[in-house]
């Protein structure tokens, strides 16, 4: 909840990947997975689950993610992301590349959220073009497993 | 058109509605309402048996509703959990005598969703309820994160203040801490004593055995002073070889004399350091402030100094309790210029 200069983000990521001996994109994907699936950040998972009743519904809610986040913490500005649906099983998530590698973070988030909803999806970072990173999402099964519970009233109160 | 021929549309558009006839008998409860009263047959039940009407006031029977314009309602479930609900009541119109009541949670949404295990599907697609729940949770999460940060910063602030009040070599308090405590005691007009302790022969230790030995002596001195005082007493190092002890709530001069004597005795015990014995001594000047006295900080410290010099003049290793006569005596010998002024 503290504000840091933007420059720290890149330096911290470089330092983390040096220490962990992993590529920066791997580290960023892990961060995305971590904030959704780590039990200390249960609030983040729950807030994302408010976005939709199933994984596809959730994917469509990502268009508003940056605005939703701003409602929660006015000063937290996330890069814009947009969902494009090619078919009802194939989507692309276009991530504004103002934060390089944000597409990898979103990959991690999507992977964890697919698990959470019990959906089976193939994710692929298809690189960067026109100032945007593209994550391809191929839905194999929207309702693959039970997924984790989401009780609307569990945390509120 | 009679809207009530198709309650399915109503069930989708406003799942928290009910339809009743003019006598208040429920003819169709919406699906969310049904979910909120599990195990109860709502159809056929009296509206006023299910809900208490808080507003408009003085609604005791269905007759009281008759002929009034569409009404905003404040209701409360008569059974536990007595959830408060808001709603609107309209005549169905046409040739029917039916009444439609549509309900919503007000601020009770958070409890309502939990109490009745509601899901997205229980709210109309146009309802902002889910967004409202999202906001409540987002706010709680943000506040919690903010609270945790505040706690951490407060801890860091306390640690920083603690450091700013600490003499790093001995871990005792420093002069800044001493002044803060003394000012507080003076302001509260408390009774307390101030012991000014000056080490003797520390310079000799430094000169003959080196500064590391001197530091060792100072650390040992600090431990002895803390040992010989109570937990509520403050021990501060205020100069190279000067210490001040503040003792609140001292009951008698005798206690002060005993504490001072013990400190001097223990300081005079040889302190072994790397095969050599370091030997020092100390002189003490003490001021005892009675409850209700209002000395200034400067006067207080100066009185303690006067008493300390009296001890030094008396041949060291002694404690002197301040009396105004000591100051007269001190003024009588130093400085001569002032003395001349006074006698003139």
What does this structure look like?
The complex is a heterodimer of chains A (157) and B (344). Chain A is an alpha+beta fold. Chain A has six helices and four strands. Chain A has helices spanning 7-20, 24-37, 42-49, 55-61, 65-72, 102-117, and strands at 81-85, 90-96, 120-129, 132-141. In chain A, strands 1-2-4-3 form a four-stranded antiparallel beta sheet, covered by helices on one side. In chain A, a hairpin with a 4-residue loop joins β1 and β2 (90-96). In chain A, α1 (7-20) crosses α2 (24-37) and α2 (24-37) packs parallel to α6 (102-117). Chain A is globular and about 40 Å long. In chain B, α7 (202-209) runs antiparallel to α8 and α10 (297-313) crosses α11. Chain B folds into three domains: 3-127, PAS domain (Beta-Lactamase, 2-Layer Sandwich); 133-164; 175-343, Reverse transcriptase/Diguanylate cyclase domain (Alpha-Beta Plaits, 2-Layer Sandwich). In chain B, the strands form three sheets. Chain B has a six-stranded antiparallel beta sheet with strand order 2-1-6-5-4-3. The interface between A and B is medium-sized, with 19 and 27 residues.
């Amino acid at each position: 909840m503290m504000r840091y200069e933007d420059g720290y983000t890149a330096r911290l990521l470089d330092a983390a990947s040096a220490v962990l001996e992993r590529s920066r994109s791997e580290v960023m994907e892990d961060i995305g997975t971590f904030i959704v699936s780590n039990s200390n950040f249960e609030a983040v998972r729950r807030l994302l689950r408010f976005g939709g009743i199933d994984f596809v519904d959730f994917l469509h809610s990502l268009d508003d993610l940056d605005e939703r986040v701003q409602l929660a913490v006015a000063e937290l500005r996330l890069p814009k992301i947009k969902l494009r649906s090619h078919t009802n099983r194939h989507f692309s998530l276009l991530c504004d590349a103002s934060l390089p590698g944000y597409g990898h973070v979103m990959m991690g988030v999507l992977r964890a959220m697919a698990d959470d909803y019990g959906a089976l999806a193939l994710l692929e970072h298809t690189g960067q073009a026109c100032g945007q990173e593209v994550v391809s999402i191929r839905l194999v099964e929207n309702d693959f497993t039970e997924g984790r519970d989401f009780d609307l009233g569990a945390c509120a109160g | 058109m009679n809207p009530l021929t198709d309650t399915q549309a109503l069930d989708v558009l406003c799942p928290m509605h009910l339809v009743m006839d003019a006598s208040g008998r429920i003819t169709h409860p919406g699906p969310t309402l049904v979910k909120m009263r599990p195990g109860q047959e709502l159809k056929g039940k009296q509206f006023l048996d299910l809900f208490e009407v808080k507003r408009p006031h003085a609604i005791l029977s269905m007759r009281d509703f008759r002929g009034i314009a569409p009404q905003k309602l404040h209701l409360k479930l008569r059974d536990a959990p007595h959830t408060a609900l808001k709603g609107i009541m309209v005549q169905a119109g046409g040739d029917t005598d039916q009444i439609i009541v549509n309900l919503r949670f007000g601020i009770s949404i958070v409890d309502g969703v939990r109490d009745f295990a509601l899901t997205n599907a229980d709210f109309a697609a146009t309802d902002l309820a889910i967004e409202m729940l999202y906001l409540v949770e987002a706010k709680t999460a943000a506040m919690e994160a903010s609270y945790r940060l505040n706690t951490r910063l407060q801890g860091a602030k306390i640690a920083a203040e603690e450091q700013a009040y600490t003499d790093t070599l001995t871990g005792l308090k420093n002069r800044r801490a001493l002044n803060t405590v003394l000012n507080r005691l003076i302001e509260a007009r408390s009774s307390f004593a101030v012991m000014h302790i000056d080490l003797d022969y520390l310079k000799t230790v430094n000169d003959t055995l080196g500064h590391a030995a001197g530091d060792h002596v100072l650390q040992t001195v600090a431990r002895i002073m803390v040992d010989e005082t109570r937990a509520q007493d403050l021990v501060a190092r205020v100069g190279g070889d000067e210490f001040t002890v503040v003792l609140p709530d001292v009951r008698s001069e005798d206690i002060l004399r005993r504490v001072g004597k013990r400190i001097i005795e223990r300081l005079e015990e040889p302190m072994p350091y790397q095969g050599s014995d370091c030997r020092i001594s100390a002189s003490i000047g003490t001021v005892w402030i009675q409850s209700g006295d209002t000395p200034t900080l400067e006067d207080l410290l100066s009185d303690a100094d006067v008493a300390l010099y009296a001890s030094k003049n008396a041949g060291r290793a002694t404690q002197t309790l301040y009396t105004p006569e000591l100051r007269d005596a001190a003024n009588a010998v130093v400085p001569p210029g002032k003395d001349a002024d006074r006698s003139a």
